[in-house]
Amino acid sequence: MRNRRLRRYAQLPGRYLDMQVAASTVDTHGRVVSLLAPPDATCTRRVPPGQRQPYDALIVVMDGRDLHEVRLQDLDVHFPMVDALGSGFVLAAARCRMPSGPPAATLDALEREVPHNALVLDHDGTPLTTFHAGDDIQHLLTDRRGGIWMGYGDEASVCAPLPLSHPDRGARGSLAPPFRRTMSMPGLIRWTASGDPAWYASSDAVGPASWVDCYALNVGTDRAWAYPYTGFPLVEIDGIGITWTRRTPTHYASAVLVEGSDAAFLTADTAPRRAPGHYTLTEAASRNGTLEATASAPLVLPDGTRPGAWARRTVCRGGQMWLQFRHDERTWFHYELGELAT
Question: What's the predicted TM-score (pTM) here?
Answer without folding.
Answer: 0.92
